[in-house]
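Two proteins follow. First one:
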Amino acid sequence: KIGHKGEDVVKEYLEKLGYIVEKPENPNQAVYDLIAEKDGIKWMIQVKTDANGDGNAHIPSEKELKKLREYASAKKMKGVWLLYYPEKREKYKYICADGRHKFQGVKPYY
């Protein structure tokens, strides 16, 4: 499945940036794809891969960002939507669920 491959690529990339990364115990029931920690900050990450190479990775709706933000906050984490573009020069972009935090090592989507 292309989504799982994207998650694995993102996991490896974040580990190279110095993040400690883990996958959920039961990925089919999780709201997130990865947990990453660096510099004392834990991130709950939803990964979306541009499967067609057309630059159209799924951009979250306000409702989706709110759900991720609330779930992450309840677990004392920050929520982030990470977009992976395998065919582009800049392969990784992020959208922070609360709009306030920077995800170190990845450029913002907006």
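Second one, unrelated to the first:
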Amino acid sequence: ERVFLAWIRTAIALIALGFLIARLSGLLRIIGLEADHPNMTPTEAVLAGTLLMGLGGVISLIATWRYRESHRKISAGQTFQHSGKLSILVGVLVALISVAIIISVCAIAFG
């Protein structure tokens, strides 16, 4: 259950980050704080935010499926092993997203 809850927290964080990116682009456009040469257009920001929210939803579904499979096998007295592929995939995706955000913030801050 702890692993399942950790995956759900990760999914919620990705959904929240996607929502923030998508909504912040609209807020910047409304108050006129967009740079002359923005790194990301509002449409691209909404797309990126939507993709992150979708990724969070997919992770939530996969986590639920894996939890149900593990619970079923434990209840039946069977042994099971999960590969670490999903963990590695999510870790790499979050790292790439973090690097992209850092580069974007630095580009805006330092011109």
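SUMMARY FIELD: Helices lie at 2-31, 42-75, 85-110. The chain has a mean pLDDT of 80.
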